[in-house]
Amino acid sequence: MADAMKQTGQEASNAAYGPPPVIGPGHTFASVTEKIASIVLRKGTKRGWMVGFGLSFLGMLMMLNTITYLVFKGIGIWGNNTTVGWAFDIINFVWWIGIGHAGTLISAILLLMRQSWRTSINRFAEAMTLFAVACAGLFPALHTGRPWLDYWLFPYPNTMGMWPNFRSPLMWDVFAVSTYATVSALFWFIGLIPDLATLRDRATSKIRKVIYGMLALGWRGSTRHWSRYETAYLLLAGLSTPLVLSVHTIVSFDFSIGIIPGWHATIFPPYFVAGAIYAGFAMVLTLGIPIRKYYGLDDFITNRHLRNMAKVMLATGLIVGYGYAMEAFFAWYSANTYEAYMYKNRTTGPYWYIYWLLILCNIAVPQLLWIKKYRESTVMLFVISMFINVGMWLERFVIIVTSLHRDFLPSAWTMYTPTVFDFTMFFGTIGFFLTLMFLFIRILPMISIYEMRTMVPEAKLKSEAHASPDKPAMPPAGGPQESPA
Amino acid sequence: MANTTYNAPPAVSGWQQRALVVGVIGLIATLAGYFVDHDQFYRAWLVGFIFVLGITLGSLGFLMIQYLTGGSWGVATRRIFEASARTIFPIVALLFIPVVVGMHSLYHWTHLEDVAKDPILQQKEPYLNVTFFLIRAVFYFAVWALLASFLAKWAKQHDDTGNHSFRQRLADLSGPGVLIYGLTMSFAAFDWVMSLDPHWFSTIYGLLVIAGQGISSIAFTIVIATRLWHREPMNHVYNSGHFHDLGKLLFALIMLWAYFSYSQLVIIWSGNLPEEIPWYLRRFSNEWKPLSWALLVFHFILPFSILLSRGLKRNARKLVIVAGLLLVMRVLDIVWLVAPEFKQTDVGGLWMYATAPIGIGGIWLWFFFRNLQSRELLPVKDPQFEQALVAASHH
Amino acid sequence: MNVNKESNIYGLMAEFDNPTAVVVAAKKAHEAGYRKMDAYSPYPIEELSEAIGFHSNRVPLIVLVGGLAGLFAGLGLQIWTSAIEYPLNVGGRPLISWPAFVPVTFEMTVLLAAFGAVLGMILLNGLPRPYHPVFNAPRFELASRTHFFLCIEAEDAKFDLGETRKFLESLGANEVTDVEK
Questions:
Q1: Which of A119, B6, B91, C176 could make an S-S bridge to A451, C-beta 3.0–4.6 Å?
Q2: Total count of domains within chain B
Q3: Is residue B171 in a domain?
Q4: B365 within a domain of the structure (yes/no)
Q5: What is the ipTM of this complex?
Q6: C99 interaction partners in chain B (CB closer than 8 Å)
Q7: What is residue A56's three-state secondary structure?
Q8: What is the count of residue pairs from A and B with beta carbons less than 8 Å apart?
Q9: Do B271 and A335 touch (CB under 8 A)?
Q10: Candidates A2, A15, A481; nearest CB to B70
Q11: Predicted TM-score (pTM) of this structure
């Protein structure tokens, strides 16, 4: 514990003495451009990529097969039953949505907080957001049972003369998830425009020039354009920050608005949001550590990035732990029979082992992150983040399945057992996600090139560029107001 | 610059005397109220105490957070947070005594004859009983006092020796410290405020109170920083960048408060369960509805809309008005948490909700200003010190 | 001949290899009275847009308008459908259940504000624009990688092919070239 926070202090003093090591030494405009763009523009494809893509693609095929079968047979092929009406589908939905949140957090919140270390991971994390949301969206869309009628979810004038019920959190979810997907895609695309222009100008083959050129919208780097671009980008970040919090809050409302014991708790919104960030950072590390190694990106995704992410995981993990503690305390303090039974059933009922496995993965193992040595070790970070990925999935299992399978009416109590199609669907979406991820790192720059340019020493303006004195932004009080230094 | 000293300007001792005068007048008025209606006196005292505790502990929390994150806003405001946090012992602890004395008037669960008739209260009895309540209170104050005193002591040693290992120690303590503060404060909020209605519970309640404490402490810090900025030596130090950072924090915190408040409301409103909804029914009754609306408008919508402006956050003269408004709204928010729990037999005693926070606040301010004068206004030996003074001015 | 050539010129493009040089050059050009000019850089440089005299932009206003439109559209949609067009008693909740209408209102506000930011930026910038005369400048493809450019446009009142070229060369440009329309 003692040396746990040592790093913070060192970082604080590092920050004080010169620029933080968010980029390896010796880089120039040309070298960062070259290094990142060449991953995309190289001729031929690495074998490792081909193997990884092939395996992921097989996973995706498994998902497509499951979906096809599901459309023919109905959701009865899953293990859901009348008591446990929500199961793997909603667990996976919440899990994927949560994973997506770290992307927005990194790209928006850290931008607003002027955390320069976000620069080399934001593009990659935003892509992760988009693909995770795509996977998440599949589950409720299929869970409706007749996915071809999903457009009924949206409010549109129809011959039935009906409108959706806006008092239902499931309706809020439709708006939240679709807004989130749209805004994340816009944010991602806006961030890509200048880099697409770089690829257009650097590509040698005609077809690449044309495709990247069209996507770049004719970006030419005009300083007027940059000025509006920066404003729009910052404003999008400002909008995305409350948006990302609202999305998982609304996901938590899906549960807490109802009165099922184990679901109806006011702590749910902040605790779900913290859990989402926790899971999301774990996924960024799970993907980032191997990619960094494979493509030799240590100069751009430095150990400092990994350390900071480890600290964010520790902090959000503790908030999640606070949530568990409050649930446990109030299960007793409420003096409500059903609440108390819910908690007893979680910890000692038929699914007790899932609860304790969850505590192991989400609460016990991540405490290793207090120790500096483990925050420094990529292997340990990878292992711990794998534990968290699993733990966060188990958390949703505990919340959804163990709350539903024994609620108010003992005659309706039952057990839930997943079928093979629950697993093929779940693992299939992992394949789908990785397929999109592999395509992304092959055809688009996975690190924001233009933002990396601002990090290299060359980008620092010399004093003659600052010749005109800053206008005082605040009228002076009693005396000179700007510091003389 | 390194040779400049940053002692508090002489004006501070003047403020200190004035705070004492106001505090004594407020206290005398409130004590007079005791003879009018002592139930009302205890409720008003609880409001004043929770308000002052909010500034103190919110400052303790931010003191630790800025040790963890670094950054210029923290260096520039550290001593103000520290001076607030150092009041936790003895003065804030002493201010708790009337709450203990008035327990029987305030907390329904202390009425053993009623507990005997109420199976739910019987079930809660292992937690909600006088002995354990007092043990917990002593424990909370001990933990907070220890945190504050170690933070203050090592900061002083860092100042005196310039040895950065003390800065390291401060950061080492702050990590677990924030966690400890979050947990103890949550339970203190359950004990002292939530248990006013011993049947009611809300799992987000601790976070809601903590967010309120954050607003109180940042708003208070903005007020003090603006006062200091008008005088030597801080007029050379504070610039629009520092106020911008504080304004952004205030903005984020009122959003957080609104977010927690809304979450609690919509979940309980939708569930509409007999064990939860009465809490809101009381607050949306005709008596308290105007206050509920006032909180929505003046604790959230108005300051939120104003603080959207970048220019305003950078302008201390205007920002301080928003901060002042929010301090008033904090008192009203605590009144909203406390007062509707009681049958208001007589509107006549309501004035004590104004005099008690003024009286307690005045006395507390006297101690705060004493602490502020006892050290330099900036941690001159901090490794980020020089950078903090210039860095904030652009952006 | 000369007249013909001049009428076919979009402007003069000066190339620089570091950010400080282009900011200083832009400042001097602005001081010298040139107004119709633009600078090109591979990443945003705040000082550069200030140097050519571009201070504020209207993107925030568009975002605000978008946000307000979303706010009223979201709230209006819910109130109209739930209370007027299709009134339905759901669990005894009032027809206008304002606590329940907050989430959708919020999402619509953010959605339209984000559209405002993106479309505002793209349209104010006159994008998409696949063809632009500056792309005719030799080596301009470096503007998206390593180099910095300052272009004084022929439309500028003070523009004179010879004089302006001399002026740009005096600013320490690597190279000054004509840009054809």
A1: A119
A2: 1
A3: yes
A4: yes
A5: 0.92
A6: 262, 265-266, 269-270
A7: helix
A8: 162
A9: no
A10: A15
A11: 0.90
